[in-house]
Design brief:
The complex is a heterodimer.
Chain A (H helix, E strand, L loop, with lengths): L4 H24 L1 E8 L3 H14 L3 E8 L4 H10 L7 E5 L3 H6 L17 H7 E2 L2 E2 L9 E6 H7 L14 H11 L7 E5 L5 H10 L19 H14 L14 H7 L3 E7 L2 H8 L5 E4 L16 E5 L6 H11 L2 H10 L7 H6 L7 H12 L10 H15 L5 H16 L5
Parallel strand pairs in A: 1-2, 1-3, 7-8
Antiparallel strand pairs in A: 3-10, 4-5, 6-8, 6-9
Chain B lengths: L7 H27 L2 E3 L5 E3 L3 H8 L1 H33 L5 H13 L2 H11 L6 H8 L14 H27 L2 H9 L4 H12 L1 H16 L3 H7 L10 H10 L4 H25 L3 H5 L1
Classes of the chains: A alpha/beta, B mainly alpha.
Amino acid sequence: MSFTRRTVLKSGAAAGAALAMPAIARAQQTNLKVVWMGWPDNQVLPLFAEFEKRNPSIKLAVERMPFSQIFQALEVRLNARSGDPDIFIVDSPLTASYAARGHLMELDSLIDKSRFAPSAIEAASFQGKIYSAPFGSSMQVLYYNKGMFRAAGIEPPSADPAKRWTWEQVLEAGRKLARPADNIWGFSFEQQERPYQLLPLGQSLGGVALSPDGLKATGFIDGPAFVEAFGFMQKLYTEAKISPPGQFDTALTPELFGSGKCAMLLGGTFVADTFFNKFPNLEFGVAPHPYFAKGKPVTPTGAWHFGVNPRTTQKAAVNQFVTDMLSDDINALWFKLRPYVPTLNAVWTKEAKTFDTDMWRIVKHESQITAVPRPATPGFREYEDILRVTLRDLQAGGDVKAALSAAAQKIDREIAKYKG
Amino acid sequence: MLREKAWIPYAFLAPALLGLLLFRFAPILIALGGSLFSQSIRGDTLFVGLKNYHELFEDPAFWAVIRTTLVFNLIINPFQILCALGLALLARRPTRFVEIFRASFLLPMTVSIALTSIIWSIMLDPTLGPVNGFLRWIGAPAQPFFRSADQALGTLIMVATWKGAGYWMVFLLAGLLAIPEQLNESAAIDGATAWQRFRYVTLPLMKRPLAFVLVADTAANFLLFAPVYIVTNGGPAGATHLLMFEAYQSAFAYLNHGRSLAISSIILAIVIAIALMELRLFRQPEEAER
């Protein structure tokens, strides 16, 4: 091969172009800053890898934060009112709070409402417009340890929602199963301090957690239904001693159940995976959420949505993120990674086989019949935080009515700013 | 000649003064200014004058937080200094292994306060904690520690002291080692007992380091936040609800920045007032006469 001036010039130009390619690609690449929940790697990374595979020009810088800190950390970031982060995860009842304060971009043009469960669209909306992308919902079921029930000679609860256990039955069985001196417990809530988990107790007795306009707690959260219900909750920790006190880390309560130290756990559908993966020898059954004998069954719902910062400078890329993440197959992938209750109708059809189990039959029934969302209020951030600390306190003892009234007054004072 | 170069010391001081101005005085001024404003829910700023202060003083819950903070400080500051002084006296004697003891007393200082909080919340966990495991093992009843309104503040004081006492010991040890040995020896020759030597020789000569440690320790404890945030959330029933946590909650849970900055300014005023009182208490006799 002879080298002419022309071939040298040609190969020089080709080499130059090859060297310049990554730089050009970088110049065209968009970076999106994403704040997400601190779930384990294997439940999060494949989701974002799939998105990046489909959109090679968009790179996601994902920051994962623990559940106990994510809301506070997001407040700090959002209150700076810059374009950082571009995308952030949203606990569905916080949609109104963020939207009222101008932290969420309206998503109506990107979301086809007919593809989703109506309750999910309702949870994603504020003043008639969609502000958060309904990525998943939730449901709680009663897990029980078959071995511990057998050993105590107790007939376990039925999986049939028509034959669900009452709270009184849970307490009675819990007393037989618990040995607090040996650190063996009868029953535990998965999220022991969260209104999400505990409001259904009062709602089961007919309580309404907040005024219909979402701006008054006095006379609602400190009404007789919640005083009685949270009095019952307190008894589980203080008088009956069937529940482990002070376990507010939501990762620890499933571990207590999984390791055979707690006979019943009222937990989300997603904790079942922890049991399968971490405690393969655990023999457990699933039953519907308990209710009070004189009340009606009520279950919690709502879960993680995500939202777009209206100050983002990457409009095209965030639109792509919303569209792809809500596509049938990425949403189905998310369901497989961490089984929250799907909000997308297509996932229910696509994964029909998966849903043919006791747990998912219960979930489907509850989602349609008994689920009550958390109160819709722009002050949910304040409402939840004040109530959370009060519920924590009540589990250590104290006057239920006085504590709830004090909390209600504090909530009223803090959410007054959203009036008018 | 000297006058011509009068600017030289200022030039040397300039970087430190600039740092002080930027990182200490500027935030204080911003906080004071910000406490006179309120934010609308959309983030617009409105001048409200002293309204934030007025609302705080009208709020009985705020007075409860002030009371808890004062009780906490009235106990923890003397307690930490007594522990630090005790450790310093123990670590002063040139015995074998004294270096190892000095280092081990200092070790908690190297652990961050956030980590300290997490370690102790695990150690003292009512259900899974090793301390209760040990208590059960020796047949004693398990204790709720941070989860009981009666024990939480005491537990917080113990944990903060575990972390702080070794640090303050260093300053007191330096003070003790600076006292000339001859003074003690001559007092001993005059027949003074160990207690009398401590009371009439050591203690008067320790006034300066003690004054510094007391003022610095008071300021540090008024600003204590991490264990309350990480472990107790101010509970149970407000037992550990300190001013710094109230300032934090106002800003980041209740989204009320004006109120939060007003609380921060009140903390600053209280710390300055108490520090001035403490300095007065520890004033040297010759300074008092001036």
